[in-house]
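Homework-ish question, so no full write-ups if that breaks the rules, but can someone show me the predicted structure for this set?
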Amino acid sequence: MTAKPTAARENILKVSDLAVSYGGIQALKSVSFEVKTGEIVSLIGANGAGKTTTLRAVSSLVPYTGTVEFKSKSGEVLNLATVPQHRIVKFGLAHSPEGRGVFPNLTVLENLQMGAFSRTDKEEIAQDLELCFASFPRLKERVKQKAGTLSGGEQQMLAIARALMAKPSLLLLDEPSLGLAPLIVAQIFEIIKKINSEGMTVLLVEQNARMALKISDRAYVVETGKISFSGRGKDLLGDPRIIDSYLGGH
Amino acid sequence: MDQSSAQEFIQHLINGISLGSIYALIALGYTMVYGILQLINFAHSEVYMVGAFAAYYTGKGLGLDQHPGFGALFALLLAAVVVCSILGVTIERLAYRPLRKAPKLNILITAIGVSLLLQYSGQIIFGADPKLFPEVIKDVTVFQLGGVEVRSLDITILVVGTLVMIGLHFLVHATKIGTAMRAVSSNTMVARLMGINVDQVISFTFVIGSSLAGIASVLVGLKYPKIDPLMGMLFGIKAFVAAVLGGIGSLPGAMLGGVILGLSEEMVVGYLSSTYRDALAFGILIVILLFRPSGLLGSQTREKV
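A: Not a homework solution, just the prediction itself:
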């Protein structure tokens, strides 16, 4: 992993004792973790462990107990439970959901415009759109096409690009490798690394533990609604507990 | 086909399209709300009824039938649109929003309840006897085309209907709030992640849908001037059939469904018997539900994995 600027190493996100119940079933028991500015942090774990629920709680899509503190673009630390859900993006937290969630009936351009919904700076949005097309030339070719007609990999690129159009300071990425061919997965992870190297803080949720750990500064392992252990990405790649459970042994 | 029967056919065609564009306006309200909330808003036909009464009392209060013309028409449309918007948003706020997380059936039954409430309140407040809608557009023959009479009311209905639908198309496809409406309708959860205030978009959808019902109510009042508090029942359910025919949730579908229903009704009345007029709509509904439940233009697209 290349060295990153060490200047700003404060928490951008701090999650404490997060718990979520769906109709009597406790999906999250007690999840605590933090993300520091400039990092890529992964939550890895099996299907149903509570990774996606964690991200949904952070974005206030599901009710939760515990606290989620987020340092907004203006530097103010917010308790997200007190912020109206639709204003969270404006403060700098963008979330690319599981299953990509592109709007299939909207064009690629309209999807990107919806990514910038919370913004009002028209000229900068236009500039960011150009930057986005420079990074994702495939999307530019398909700008007038309905997002539902894109391939899975293209849809994932669109989902990431759309989240970036919000101009966030923290990007939540839920299972970007889901259902994609290995070659495409590698491309997507290259993109994530590149975005991070340009300064974006990323909180990544992945079942593909190997890929996630390779690019992560730190990672947390989620098991049945709890964090079971955590560590540096590189270290966890060689950790026997990870190798046995998540990397399929040797 | 000899000349007189050709003339007759064209006459029916004009009448049918004019009736159809009114169905289309109401059908759009059903389909928009369905697209956003997956709710058949049964109270929509009563919003339409209240619009007709709002226009009636405005016309009467201002004595507009003494001063017919486009100014008077505009005043009636404005009154109906304002009252319908307020009513539509109020219904959503008080009856549907508290049930946002409840099972879909609860909110559907609530919609039927609101519909009945408005029908019977209408009978108490407005009286059950029919009222004569102010004649703000005199129905005269504007021109004759090869023996076919083109009348001012039909032209008015067609022009207003077409302008409104073009306006709606622009709103939905070329504005930020319109794109947000389509985003919410496509995936509400993801729309929330974009920072879209979904409740606001829903309210806005009710404003637009109810306004269209208000406009339709004035056009109906002009064409069929007897209005009463139960006028929404049959007309509303037919507009709903039009929405299902076109594919519920699809805006072009609602327009197409409305025009097809209006045309077929007019042809049935013209060539068979007016007895079958209402049976036709429900016949169409049954056939559509049997053979193409998603409607003519309904979405059958699935998301790629």
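Now go work out the reasoning yourself. Hint: Residues 182-197 of chain A form the longest helix (16 residues).
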